[in-house]
């Protein structure tokens, strides 16, 4: 409700649906077409690829800034990269940049997502490497990752450049949030949402 209130506080109309993310996207698309509006959405489908591509390219900025800071601090290039995925737009944009900027044979990428909405995991572990959709409720505390259909624009990047795919329970993200908020002495605390904390939570599970 807090997110809804913030959106409405900016003067926008906010409609809360009773369907999952992917069906909400379809509803938004139908509404946009009926009213002659432009849909700005980071997942893609046949005939709607340009704007999602731009959005994924925008996500590359985060990777560019991270690489710049690593170089300025004199650190070695990363050996492992953990990226969270919903439809895979952010993960694909960031990984595409890193694979182009760095030597992709020198780091391993892990894609993490909620077990309740594990379309990327199922796609990455499928025998043919084809996109696999997940339907149903998809409920997770990681609301920003509760998506059931991979983005076809970025899926080839995730398929070809990722080493591992994992799907985790909500408690893993909750642990990540606690670790960010209560770091070791000398480290800065980070206030992270559930979708952002899955990566640290997953790392904690792995090590």
UniProtKB/TrEMBL annotation:
Keyword Protein biosynthesis: no
Tryptophan synthase beta chain-like PALP domain location: 3-203
Gene3D superfamilies assigned: 3.40.50.1100
Keywords for this protein: Lyase, Pyridoxal phosphate
Superkingdom of origin organism: Bacteria
Cofactors required: pyridoxal 5'-phosphate
Keyword Isomerase: no
EC number(s) per entry: 4.3.1.15
Family annotation (InterPro entries): DiNH2opropionate_NH3_lyase, TrpB-like_PALP, TrpB-like_PALP_sf
Record GO terms (molecular function): diaminopropionate ammonia-lyase activity; pyridoxal phosphate binding
NCBIfam families: diampropi_NH3ly, PRK08206.1
Record protein name field: Diaminopropionate ammonia-lyase
Species of provenance: Vibrio paucivorans
